[in-house]
Amino acid sequence: PILFVGANPSATSSLQVDDGGSEITATGPVRFELLTRGRFTPYVTGGAGVTRLSGNGPMATVDGGYSFLFFGVFPFDEHDTVVLTQTFDELVFIGVLGGGINIAINARSGIRADARVHIGSTTDRVEMDATPRVTPGSPIFQVASVTTPSLSFSNIAPPNPFPPSSLSGPAITDFTTFEASGARSQFLWSVGYYFRF
Question: pTM above 0.70?
């Protein structure tokens, strides 16, 4: 059993999600026409370029907390804010492969369908920040459960005597929870009208 008797309990939580920054890609492909005559003229493309990421990656912020009065006398108020951020290499060199077809309507204009894939190598990471907070209260008090593991509550400002609150501890900054590297591909396609002057 847990030897806690609390009054006026309250628990809160919130989630905020940010989609992140922007990506700019610059490429220099070369087109090789497979046929030069006829209404249908297919071609292939190849080249290289760079992709640059600006701003922050996708980010999720979770804030949670709880408060109660132990035996209706001793206030406990604890919160924790956790931020998860996905990061990428800011600058990635890519190769460009693709192809398409021109469909002539007349001698000077037509319709073009084009498909390309950008291939590069990048490292993705998920980093975590955590900020636990214990609000000092009066009268001061500490209490721990008799369970294993023990659950401890405290309203004493850090540094706490033993046992500290289970939600307390030093802040965590830029802790890598996941990391993966390898090939990254991005597929693009377009259909448009062209006109020769």
Answer: no
Give the integer Cα–Cα distance in Å for 87 and 20.
10
The helices-and-strands tally (H runs, E runs) of the chain is: 0, 10
CA–CA gap between residue 34 and residue 31 (Å, rounded)? 10
At residue 163, what is the residue type? P
In 3D, which of 189, 7, 2 has the Cα closest to residue 101? 189
Residue found under tokens 């000092």: 136
Query: Beta partners for 131?
Result: 81
Strand bridging mode 142-144 / 59-70:
unpaired
**E-strand stretches of the chain:** 6-18, 22-33, 40-54, 59-70, 74-87, 91-104, 109-134, 142-144, 152-154, 172-195
CA 81 from centre of chain: 16
pLDDT in tens, 113-145: 999 999 998 888 999 999 998 888 899 888 888
Structure tokens at 36: 């030069």
DSSP 164: P
What 3-state DSSP class applies to 146?
coil
